[in-house]
Amino acid sequence: MLVVNRFRGDDALRADLETAHAALADRPGYLDGTLGRNVDDPGLWVLVTRWQDVGSYRRALSSYEVKLTAVPVLSRAIDEPSGYELVGESELNTAVPRDTDAR
């Protein structure tokens, strides 16, 4: 599962997005993610995360730490659909789950 959240904001938004991303990255089922800024419109930001499945993402959103640190930031996202199902069998869409035994 791919989650794409876009935001409008200034440089101060970056720290909030990094904090939100760190909280999400610590949850079981998280595969990877990145933060980006639009090259033509520096006020447009994106947080992209990949998850093992939709259930992992939904469980992450309901965890206490994510509710405390990430959900307030995610609620500021541009109002548009953000969850995507990966399609195709290419190697680009094949994810190796992170080791979750250490949690």
UniProtKB/TrEMBL annotation:
Protein name: Antibiotic biosynthesis monooxygenase
Keywords: Monooxygenase, Oxidoreductase
Domain ABM: 11-67
Gene3D superfamilies assigned: 3.30.70.100
Source taxonomy: Bacteria, Bacillati, Actinomycetota, Actinomycetes, Propionibacteriales
Organism: Nocardioides marmorisolisilvae
Superkingdom, natural source: Bacteria
GO MF terms, alphabetically ordered: monooxygenase activity
